[in-house]
Amino acid sequence: MKVAIVGVGGVGAAHLVAASRIGAEVVAVIDTDQDTLDRFSHKWENRWESVVETGVPQAGTRYLKVFPERLDVDITILATPPHTHAALLAQALEATKARDGHVIVEKPLTITTLDWSTIDRASMCAEWIHHPELSIKDGTTSIGMCFKEAHTTDWGYKLSLEEDFLPHLLSILHASGRRAEDIQVQVSTNDLLRVIFTDESGERMLCWGRRKGGSGLFVGAQCLDWHPDLFDRQLLLGRGIPILDAWKWERLIEADREVEK
Fold this sequence. Notes:
Layout: E1 2-6, H1 12-21, E2 25-30, H2 34-42, E3 44-48, E4 51-55, E5 62-64, E6 75-78, H3 85-95, E7 102-106, E8 122-125, E9 143-146, H4 161-175, E10 180-188, E11 192-199, E12 204-210, E13 216-219, E14 222-224, H5 232-238, E15 241-242, H6 243-260
Parallel strand pairs: 1-2, 1-6, 2-5, 6-7, 7-8, 9-12
Antiparallel strand pairs: 3-4, 8-15, 9-13, 10-11, 11-12, 13-14
Helix pairs in contact: 4-6
């Protein structure tokens, strides 16, 4: 499997290490910052809170500042700032067209102008979709997660609670084989996201995200530990949430915002 990764300033590093771990051939690492490229050309490393993961740089990997016109890869992963996602998705689909390559985009993704005939080659991802300790067997179990701080960096875009948490929660459910029949999204004043997910069988599940408390992924009250294969199967084999589903969920978020106005 040949992989290209665009953006390794943050979560892209986890994609890179995961690709290395499952034995994928990383054809290209693309980033606009030359210092970042230089660092990764010598050492592949992902840091998240107390977690440090490393991979061995591959001899044939190219480190590029400019997105090439053609990528001879099976999968291109986009892990760049949110405002770049839609434009880069179109560019990545075009670059991988000759091989009918697949494109995985980090959340969030709002589609504006895109060739809809290529959508079946694209998907959106969020972490923790295939945690080996995560088992969802009935609608009485709640799943949730906590990040102590909002996802915002020097690229100047702060993700809302809905944009930050909802893709993670829905991708977990998607990985468990559930498809949404109805989704209700509520955001409280104390920085808590509450999602009622109803699947095709009519089973309901409570999903939640919050800023306060211990970080991690929760099933009921149990916090699941980081596991080495959190990214691997989701990002490179599972291929995340289909873009059409992701687009539907983001339209739902936008509709709720309009109602609040």
